[in-house]
Amino acid sequence: MSHLKLFAAVLKSHGIKLLxxxxxxxxxxxxxxxxxxxxxxxxxxxxxxxxxxEEMYYAWLENPKSVHKSWDVFFRSANAGPAAHLPAQxxxxxxxxxxHGLAPTPGKAEKLVEDHxxxxxxxxxxxxxxxxxxxxxxxxxxxxxxxxxxxxDLITTIDKxxxxxxxxxxxxKVFQLPTTTFIGGNENSLSLREIIKRLEHTYxxxxxxxxxxxxxVEQCQWIRQKFETPGIMKFSNEDKRTLLARLVRSMRFExxxxxxWSSEKRFGLEGCEVMIPALKTIIDKSSEMGIEYVIMGMPxxxxxxxxxxxxxxxxxxIFCQFDPKLEAADEGSGDVKYHLGMYHERINxxxxxxxxxxxxxxxxxxxxxxxxxxxxTKAEQFYRGDTAGKKVMSILLHGDAAFAGQGVVYxxxxxxxxxxxxxxxxIHVVVNNQIGFTTDPRMAxxxxxxxxxxxxxxxxxxxxxxxxxxxxxxxxxVAAEWRNTFNKDVVVDLVCYRRRGHNEMDxxxxxxPLMYKQIHKQVPVLKKYADKLIADGTVTLQEFxxxxxxxxxxxxxxxxxxxxxxxxxxxxxxxxxxxxFFNADGEPKSMSCPPTGISEEMLTHIGNVxxxxxxxxxxxxxxxxxxxxxxxxxxxxxxxxWALAEYMAFGSVLKExxxxxxxGQDVERGTFSHRHHVLHxxxxxxxxxxxxxxxxxxxxxxxxxxxxLSEYGVLGFELGFAMASPNALVCWEAQFGDFHNTAxxxxxxxxxxxxxxxxxxxxxxxxxxxxxxxMGPEHSSARPERFLQMSNDDSDAYPEFTEQxxxxxxxxxxxxxVNCSTPANYFHVLRRQILLPxxxxxxxxxxxxxxxxxxxxxxxxxxxxxxxxxxxxxxxxPAAQAPHEVKRVIFCTGKVYYDLVKERKSQDxxxxxxxxxxxxxSPFPFDLLKEEVDKYPTADLVWCQEEHKNxxxxxxxxxxxxxxxNHTRPIWYVGREPAAAAATGNxxxxxxxxxxxxxxxxxxEAFEGKTF
Length: 1012
Description:
- By secondary structure, the chain is an alpha/beta fold.
- The chain folds into four domains: 3-142 and 153-206, no CATH class; 237-573, Rossmann fold, CATH 3.40.50.970; 600-770 and 819-862, Rossmann fold; 872-1001, Rossmann fold (3-Layer(aba) Sandwich), CATH 3.40.50.
- The chain is 38% helix and 12% strand.
- The chain has an eight-stranded mixed beta sheet with strand order 3-9-10-8-7-4-6-5, sandwiched between helices. Strands 15-12-16-17-19-18-24 form a seven-stranded mixed beta sheet, with helices on both faces.
- Strand 13 (679-680) and strand 14 form a beta hairpin.
- The longest helix is centred in the first third of the chain and has 24 residues, at 237-260.
- It is globular.
- The relative contact order is 0.07.
- Mean pLDDT is 89; it is low at 1-50, 81-94 and 99-103.
């Protein structure tokens, strides 16, 4: 038994009262900060009762009243020296302690306690700050933390012992080790000299550990045990030979590309070749623990090497990408070779288990792929019932500059532990080049490390010198075990260098001359490690050379085969295949879409459930009771508003086995308090009810989830979720449509062009509240012009109207943009999204005021079996009965229709003015609008929109209308004047401008005498 434990036991046996554990913890935390440089909220007193006495002693020194009065007397007497007289009730205790050599004689007790506390503080200092002096930079010229300062509480020289009140004479004293360290192994005490030696070995060599900010004692202890235990970092000779072979493949692959295509950009891995064995180690260990599917995202650097040596894509397919004479046989533009992805199922040779690997294609926007990977991972876990993430996991690779600089990294981290977004832990691997493109890290970030953003979610960060392959492998094994054990993120920071410039054509000496002088002298890691293994007899020189020759031969043979490839097939690079959805050629199984209506019985059933609370003893808000009652009345009257139409669309596809996921800020209730898909018990905290999940006995699940206040990260996540399966309706709703612009990168780089670049179909739905109501420039316009500008249909090409024109036009477009004016059409377009034989992104400009507009209701008759989505809703009033008498046809879309109808009626122009609604704007419904235009041969053709002239739809529809009429008739504009801001925030100005363009729209002489 240790002295301290015996001390505590003796005190207890003599009836000396110990403070309550909780009280000691509280007081020690409050009073002990100055004595323990913890830098964390983890209680330093964690452990057994053996530490209570010394903790109380220091609490007493700070405040004598903080301990029981008997201890106050005892400590006062002990400090007073031999002449001090203990009270009678304490005398027996003191004599007993003295007889055991434990009594606090003058100064001795204080020195004993101080020295032990000093050693504990020393150990803690290394655990907290040892990484600042670790030898992390392979080049030896930079400090990985951007600071050459050595913390004063680390014993780097003998004279620093004085910081703790220790002296050189104390180095050979033996000290009891606290329970918060494992450096002793099976020993409970060590000399101070040995303690410092072991701490330096653990924390100040090629591995730098950041974990003491984690506020969970168990997790900290787990990490300490993995790194502090003496001799724990051992590898068998077989492991070392495997590591060497993987380094050979990593380096020789880059050498081969450099020899064959010396003038081609490939963003090679030179300087961080260890990344390939690192990834393979993570995958091996994860496979061993049960992982079956690994989804990866990464930037350019090293992508081809990862494809070749981790995913195991055929080398000839990779080499094909370098042949400038080959033409792609597939649809779309394709992409540069270092943006492409891959999906591959194979046997893991290390574990002999089947594993699926997917590397996501992504653009040059380096970290944009992060949330996409997380979304796809979440979807794969969801569909497999893998709620704990034991079968599917994600690995994200990062560059140091992007990891620190890109805000989407922070957004993605903050999704990591949210119930509807967690993937149960991601392993992040940072390729830390210690430089951006040409930017010095000291100019690129304000934090010590590029990885500091991970601290916000208590993810441990393992920095490691990338020129020490065994240290890297050990760290990667621990990272995989951490993720499996705690289901939390972890970061591996590979501190390396970039042997060439930003790419193979770049000259880095322009801006980093000193760094690259050192790099030119740097011995490659493969040679370093091979020399080491040869020296210790693990491999022979001949074996090493044979390994190199074997892989070089593999590359040459694949190069020869690549010359036989006649065509590049982008489909070979799919990262998200949908087996069984398309035919063998990757084409849709049909080019037709069934009617999207459903039976009246189903409509009524969904309406009744949407109006109810299908859980007993559930107290809802009184205001919500009125809403549900109104839904019930509408259902009886065979009517739907916007919210009920959405409910019926979702509910009907759930019955067909289609999972529905709705995500975004405040979507459960709806920004405009119209949806209420999640009911909250008013009397029981956190008790909720989702009626949508009570529709049918064997329905698909409905997931509705309020997101974090993020657009970029969350939209990327939902895009990734939609990639996993075609049999899901995945919707993201912006709080206001305007806010999608903070997710513009996902829209521009993934959604609008994903199929063209990567042959990646995706059926994600974007719901963007839109409408001019005087609510200001940030709460009005979803900027439809941006989506229309990126649509790929040709404004000047007059199409051939075949029987399957509608579906074939949808198949050829890059996305669909709609602005529905009726709840029924919204219902149909959501159902069409699932019933189409292919998947396209759908952009829906959803309303705000129309959510409760008395005229914006639809009858069941517009939604029952046999009905379908109306791309164009033609005039069906008096004007349509006598089209030759019509003087003006106003084409419009969305909410402005109701303003126009009201104004037409007030001016009694219902026979002279026809109003046609364009519900699907892109792809442009040439066929139906041609019929409308021809129907009114003598009428003015007017496009009316509520948006400003330089916004909205006019620039998109004008050339297409002119194509329809072969440039023989003008299409006049009516709407607001051009403006820099999307809308006014002044209600009066809004109404004045509305009045102005409505007057113009119904002034039948407005365009007489004007030319076009």
